[in-house]
Sequence to fold (532 residues):
Amino acid sequence: MKGQPCPPEGFPDLYDAIADAYDRLDDWIVSEWGEKPRPERADFLQKYWASRFPAVRNVLEICCGTGLMLEQLALRGFEVSGLDRSAAMLGHARERLGPEVPLVLAELPSIPVSRQFDAVISSGAALNYMSGEDDLAATFRSVAGVLRPGGSFVFDILGRAMMDGHAGSDVWAADLGDLAFIWEFENAPSGDYCDATYTQFLHREGNPADSYEKTIELHRLYVLDPELIRRVARDSGFIDTAVHDNYTDGPAHDATLYETWTFTRA
Amino acid sequence: MKGQPCPPEGFPDLYDAIADAYDRLDDWIVSEWGEKPRPERADFLQKYWASRFPAVRNVLEICCGTGLMLEQLALRGFEVSGLDRSAAMLGHARERLGPEVPLVLAELPSIPVSRQFDAVISSGAALNYMSGEDDLAATFRSVAGVLRPGGSFVFDILGRAMMDGHAGSDVWAADLGDLAFIWEFENAPSGDYCDATYTQFLHREGNPADSYEKTIELHRLYVLDPELIRRVARDSGFIDTAVHDNYTDGPAHDATLYETWTFTRA
Fold:
């Protein structure tokens, strides 16, 4: 994405390294950082969409990764499609979701899909990678372009309380057996974004038991101000914007770690 | 040592894995955990010993590791000897200190040395591995046995404030390039000791750039009560026991992270 820092020489493209470990990493994020478990996220979506008319039948997830959320929605009877910038991630999604699910390799704000959906979602804080108003507006316009009138857009992002919580020299690490990783967070002095360095050690089948492959990724996560989101949403053709506290019915507040946003396409 | 937990199958003996990374690890401990830099520890010892008569000329370090402290003392003109339980550690000490320095492979409380020294030291919290009164008393008696009358014993240990600070699910980690590690601390419910799991990823020269060797060590660190130390010291033939705050002239207090103990052999 435009706002991401250039990886130093020798750093892989974002998500190449993370893709093979992503499912376990996401489980760890749920258990350690308070992200809502995926089945509960899907329950929230199903319940939220149940009150809508016409009914939500088909859903596109942008930044779908390895397809963990799409799997939950498929289990609940939705017709699902996915889009992601990482071929490595989509490879895992293909294995998980089977040969029939449409999976599109593309980088936001581009959504090269020639149909309209009842709903679009983004989960796992993908939109925190948007570097500001221009990026966000282009993405919102693309989403509006693939939603039918009255369609639903739901996404989650890290709230300011979460970003501030990882400020300074915060380090997180875990050894999960054949996967170990270290997250180092450094907030920009401006407070506008947080740079997360992800160092991964992964044991590959067939290698000696004590031999691990090391990779490093730099992730820049932007703080997205709620007022900016509301304004850009309105300018991009959305109405009924609301922000929930981490996939619950309650509204987001100052201590909200994960914001769940719901828009309706006008 | 007797009080150490049996390593589970597949875990190496203590210090085998850590030896090749120890110098950089110790630098990190100094910078991140507030351990006194080695030159300042040596300055403290030199100044403390300067007031003694007869002068301190020769020094034995028990648990000398890779010889980092002995190097500092040798630079200041002391005649140094070392003892350690790890052949891997002593191999590095031999490289650092040259062929003439006596280095003894032995495990405390055994100090199989047939001479007496002006001073014995232990640094880097080695004595926190003593599991209680019996271990400690046997070690103190061995030290007294290799000290001349009036000789000096100086050692540092982690204070209770330091042990309590790593309580519960505390995790520390760093990626230093060709070395990365994760420390996971878990305090015993009794408060008597802390289990530290050290997971190390080390790149070896000649291996592919992204290939790292993973090893894990379990270290059990015991809290040593000051009253216990004083009593065992007295019973083992020491006088003038004092405890300083981390190699300074000030006395240890409730917030002291590193206690520096000074004894005199009666």
